[in-house]
Amino acid sequence: MTNSDERPSLKVALATYLGTKALKARAPDFGAFTIDFVEIAPISRAFAPMVRELRFDICEMALVTYLQARDHHKELVLLPVAVAQRFQEGSLLCRTDDATIKSPADLAGKRVGVRAYSQTTGVWLRGILNDDFGVAPDNIRWVTFENAHVAEYSDPPFVSRAAEGQELVAMLKAGELDAIIAGNDRPDDRALCGVFADPDAAGERFRAKHGFVPVNHMVVARRSLIDRRPDLVAGFFEALVRSLVAAKGSRSGLPLGRAALQPAIDLAARYAGEQRLLRRALSPREIWEGLPRSVIAIAEEGAA
After folding, report:
1. Same domain, 103 and 20
2. How many CA atoms, within 13 angstroms, populate the side-chain half-sphere of residue 283?
3. pLDDT digits (tens, 9 = 90+) for 4-17
4. Domain span at residue 141?
């Protein structure tokens, strides 16, 4: 965490979004400190090294990965801002010629592929399927391609692993899967269609019901860094918030601060527990444990 001019340097893994471009454009000089941005694509490849090795000082992280990390007492602290959020319904795909799937309720008993059972998009969608369509997580035969980022976690018994070398979309098109969760990278293929006939309308129904857009990625910091230099984490957080606000044009609606984010985190934690991704319930106090007062103050000012 040092550089040649003796100022502290933070090693940060963060994807390039509209909201983070201004932040990265300042690199490496942030006045009192510098930032070494580690470019990893897709950013999900940074999550396991951060959880298992604490490889970075600060890292973008999927919400469910963080909840599992907290469940297993990893030395990470959640910062109160979302850098990626979206409606999830457009990620659930089936074959256009499959007449057996006419609505999400028809997935009961089907084979559904997902990159990892712990993937945050999958957690949101399984929660929606259970709450709104009566399809419980264990009433689907889940097929995965990767382990969870948290090494201590093992998938439940109703989850199986695809054979080595198999691929999500190819298995769907070959009829080896009935549906897939494509995540953020929905394939442009006329042979595939959405399980939700109108995913945009379904997303708006979710927002009307719950009052928020689902959160996918937040940001975490190493607990040891916060213990030694909370000022550096606060300086980074303030710069990130400014970048997000500049991209959005205002603070209005920015997913910033514990109060603004708590409803989404609470629902994600409930879904994760119901889906056997967590061993125990996590309280808000435990979820935010270790957050410096200086970061709280920046977030609360931004949310005002």
Report:
1. no
2. 3
3. 567 899 999 999 99
4. 89-210
